[in-house]
Amino acid sequence: MMSDQAIKDSDVLDGLNVKYLKFFGLWRVVNDFRTTGKRNKILRVKIFITLVLVLPYILCQYLSYFVIKVDIQKAIFLNLHLLPGTQICCKIVVFWFKIESQCKLFDLLKKDFLSVPEEMRPEAAEIFKKITRRTNKLCLAAFIVNISIIISSIADPAISVDYILYHTGDMAAVTTGKKKMLGGWYPVPMAETPYYELIYVYEAVAGTLGGFLLAMYVCLFYQVLMCLYAQFTILCLKTSALKIKSDNGRINSSIYKELNEILKEHQKLLSYAKELRSVYNPLVTLIIGIGLFILIIAIFQFLFGGKSDFMFIFKSLQLLVYQCVEVSMFCFGSTYIETASSDLQFAIYSSDWYMTGMKFRKEAQMMMIRATKGETLTALRVYPINVETIMSILHFTYSASAVVSRMAE
Questions:
Q1: How far is residue 313's CA from residue 384's CA, in Å, rounded to a whole number?
Q2: Do residues 110 and 13 lie in contact, with contact meaning Cβ atoms separated by under 8 Å?
């Protein structure tokens, strides 16, 4: 069952930056749900505003294929901004329907999630700080890249309205017409006043909100992921420290008590890992799937959309960097968990198991068997997510981009 207590600042792992979640109200959303079991007004208003702003854009872009002339290059361009909007909606839907499990998983952010002996606390604190610093850097990178995309898009709206309405082929070849932020079509006279101005304001507001939301939800999910890694690391520390304490030449029974406690905590971590997979499976599937398409589109646009336009190249690179950051966060985070959870085997081996009785050895062996297969995230419930996934994505992106490029030529 989910805890009925709010998470205080003093409960959070040392060094973990939750200011992003507090600033956007998600920290309060989580704590309110943990204490009341209900979604508060902040979440309802936030989701309503987001869907009101994002869904019309998504709907119009899908309708545009039946209204304006579209070839493969233009279709790829239209999806360049359509897919991130779809990604935002998917993350919100996952959070809304999985909020109970997500709020339960926030227990992993607590420094006292596992019991740590007094003599190990300084070393445990250093482990927490090392992992939280790494987490904070990647979350900050996601925000910086997204903010730079927003600023560059507003400062240089370089997408021709004429290209959207009347042309196909190379977008860089169309130099006429007013410029806009996003590559979207709308069922209004887009080039005329006041529709052009209204569309510009709408895209600026929707793009700004979407950029922040993408980074915010990445931080929300990624911090929980890395905290599970931190807890597995602490459990390894405790397990490797299991040492024999003699009492008048006899083995003290405290080592058996410590092992039983570690077995219970390991089972607890495994249950949270299972819960995390159930929450993150649809999320990671969507992030990897949509991110893969965005990477292909961004590379295609970078190669064929405007070779002489510095800002166009810069924006394409920004999209590439953000998707690489987001995909890498989950792939590397899953790899960290896999490594830490499987390292329990070596941690047990590093204990004084060979000096103990048969009871201890059997229980230690059972724990080693459980740790044989490391815990990882999965996509489509069967495909493990790890560092190898990144290489597969890059290889597929290159191959798909080459095929699309040949088709366009």
A1: 34
A2: yes
**pLDDT, mean of residues 345-349:** 87
pLDDT, tens digit, 9 for 90 and up, residues 123-145: 999 999 999 999 999 999 889 98
Q: 311 with 152: CB under 8 angstroms?
A: yes
Its sign, for the CA torsion 9, 13, 17, 18, is: negative
CB atoms closer than 10 angstroms to residue 403: 11
Q: Report the distance separating Cα 149 and Cα 298, nearest Å.
A: 13
Cα(102)–Cα(224) distance, integer angstroms: 9
Distance CA 162, CA 175 (A): 9
The answer to whether 213 and 258 are in contact (CB under 8 A) is: no
How far is 214 from 220, CA to CA, in rounded Å? 10
Report the alpha-carbon distance of residue 21 to residue 36 in Å, rounded. 19
The predicted structure's pLDDT at residue 254: 77
Higher-pLDDT residue of 299 and 230 is 230
Q: Following CA atoms 62, 63, 65, 67 in sequence, which dihedral angle do they give, to the nearest 10 degrees?
A: -160
Q: What's the CA angle centered on 288, arms 285 and 292, to 5 degrees? A: 140
User: Would the pLDDT of 249 be above 50?
Assistant: no
Query: For 79-119, what is each residue's pLDDT tens digit?
Result: 877 888 888 888 888 899 999 999 999 999 999 999 998 88
Q: Render pLDDT for 210-239 as a digit per residue (tens, 0 to 9).
A: 888 888 998 899 999 999 999 999 999 998
Please give the C-alpha separations between residue 234 and each of 314, 337, 349, in angstroms, as whole numbers. Answer: 42, 12, 16
